[in-house]
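Chain and backbone:
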Amino acid sequence: RAAISSTAVVGEARHRLREECIIGRTGAADLQVIGRGVSRRHAEIFANAGAFWLADLGSTSPTVVNGLPL
C-alpha cells in the first residue's frame, strides 16, 4: 500500500499494481490519497486487454485526469 498527501513534497513514487487497485482516502485503499476532495473509495485502476484503465467509483468529487473529469 502507498499513501500520498496533498501537502507532501512528491518526488517519485512507485507502486506495483495488482490487476485492480482502489484509490481512496481510507487506509484500506491500495493507494491512499489524503485530501478533502478524495472519497474513501474514489477510483479504481484496472487491467483489461493489455492496457490499464481508470474508473471513477461514484465519488462526490469527480476523478480528473489532465484537467478533464472521467
